[in-house]
Amino acid sequence: MRRVYFLDISSESGCCERTDSETKGYRxxxxxxxxGLLCSGMLAIxxxxxxxxxxxxxxxxxxxxxxxxxxxRQYTWTSHTEILRKGEVKxxxxxxxxxxxxxxxxxxxxxPPPEQHEKRGLRGRVVEKKKDELQDYMERAVALIxxxxxxxxxxxxxAFQAGGVSLGQAGPGTIQLQIRNYLKQGDTLTLSFDAAxxxxxxxxxxxxxxxxxxxxxxxxxxxxxxxxxxxxxxxVLNAEAKKLQVRTQNANYQRAGA
Length: 258
Description:
Elements lengths: L2 E5 L7 E5 H53 L2 E11 L2 E12 L5 E5 L11 H25 L7 H9 L3 E3 L6 E7 L7 E7 L4 E10 L6 E10 L5 E10 L4 E12 L3
Antiparallel strand pairs: 1-2, 3-4, 3-12, 4-5, 6-7, 7-8, 8-9, 9-10, 10-11, 11-12
């Protein structure tokens, strides 16, 4: 059997003797080791690239939201809201809306206030108590959602630093960012952007009030005004535990003072 002599840098003697089969095995081991090192390097580079891409897209999202919120403060608009219980409309209202100096939306109800019918007796008091409980529950759900819309730049950045931001599956021309643990442990805020126009097209929230069984979800579809300003055209809030739903349509956007 032919023998081959070569320098073995891992050997203390510096030289060793191997057979042809041993030589082939040794070379295969070196090739596998080199391939492993190359693959690990590629994985590291790929992870860095993904993280950098996420960082860039998140920065663009924060900039887009901030710019749009500033533009919306120049407008007034009307809002039509329907409150449903078990699929049946229980209340509707129309409001004139605008942003106040503190950045919150100020609403003025349009039309006469709804008539109040006094409920007498024990049954009337029970009905009123249930209505008050549902009203309180809905107000808590709405207040919770206001913590997600519009998204806060600092909370998005905190989620990113904690590894809670990822790219989701979206359609052509759409960038989707999924943000986990945005406000509460286990919640999700999903932002879908038009890649070309760089404006928000859809926002989804999956959250809860006191515990995950008390789920609250929100879907928001956005439209664009002629000057490029984005606005929430339609929103649907669901509080499944109470079989409550709030549907809102926003329209008639006009520059304040025009």
